[in-house]
Amino acid sequence: MAQATFTPQGEREEKFRLLSGHTIPAVGLETWRSGSQATNSVFIAIVEAGYRHVDTAGEYGIQEEVGDGIKAAIHAGVERRDLFITSKLWCTELSPERVRLALMNTLQELQLGHLDLYLIHWPFGLKDGASRPPKAGDVLDFDMEGFWREMEKLVKDQLVRDIGVCNFTMMKLNKLLGIAQTMPSVCQMEMHPGWRNDKMLDFCKKNGIHVTAYSLLGSQEGGHDLIHHPTVERAAKKLNRTPGQVLVRWAIQRGTSVIPKSSHSDRINENINVFSWEIPEQDFQVLCSIPGQKRVLDGKNLFVNKNDGPFNSTADLWDHED
Ligand code: NDP
Ligand code: 1BO
Asked: Strands, E, within the chain: which ranges?
């Protein structure tokens, strides 16, 4: 469950405790596809709306803009120690010899001395210059043990405070748990009422791994328009909130932190205004029963080559667990 605390300004905020003992804010700002607006969005989120978590990735190509937003927020008086900054390591860097260099590039782009959380973006290696969809030979296996040892060294060297994964299956997490000396604190996964992924959430909870939900509004990918879903709209009307707020609150009550993306200041403010109210149990359960469960971001375009493999279908990517 999220723990509520109050900022020095008296604003209520919620955080989840990680296995490491550190905390992660319940709501963060995502930056994928924020483009040149990233600097402004990050500044508004931190300084005006009170976000303390910003999530980005090397692959998004906007870490410098995100870094400028963070720097401007610090210049405006926010303390670095109060911020939680996450980035992710792309698939071309999933080898023991490339991990540290990838992190150093990320730190340089973000103009930071350390990250709060460093995640494996997807659990598949890609050749430099891989096509989308991948050509024969573009998708590589990766040495999970050798790789994780290097991630652990980043923690020991205080370059990152926590390490974790995204887009893992239970099978891959089990393998990692058997190898890890420093446990993955966080698993970042697609989760929303249109793709609850209950099995994965339960598995993570049993193992003490915190889940951050992405694409919780149904994503720009167009798979689930949850903002306009009648069940979500009904709940929003009843609770006198917006559909976006209902989706964010639903995810927090499920025990996950969230990283809604927005480049608009009104929505950035709206998406974090979720700490002074709750979705009653009955309405929560209705939101848990939306039919037609399916992933939006299934990884097909990134990793599936149905003729040459090694992953011939999305079911292969997700270890046939869906
Ligand atoms: P989201 O579900 O966060 O939806 C973002 C979209 O919703 C944007 O178009 C945004 O538009 C709009 N939006 C934001 N707030 C509201 C609101 N209150 N009301 C109506 N519309 C709103 O989807 P994404 O798929 O973009 O995922 C979010 C983040 O999760 C990404 O930025 C990404 O970084 C992360 N992610 C991580 C992945 C991983 O592999 N780890 C994979 C996929 C996503 P606008 O900006 O115009 O407000
Ligand atoms: C290509 C990046 C997918 C979203 O994180």
From this structure: 3-6, 12-17, 23-25, 28-30, 53-55, 84-89, 115-120, 125-126, 139-140, 160-166, 186-190, 210-214, 257-258
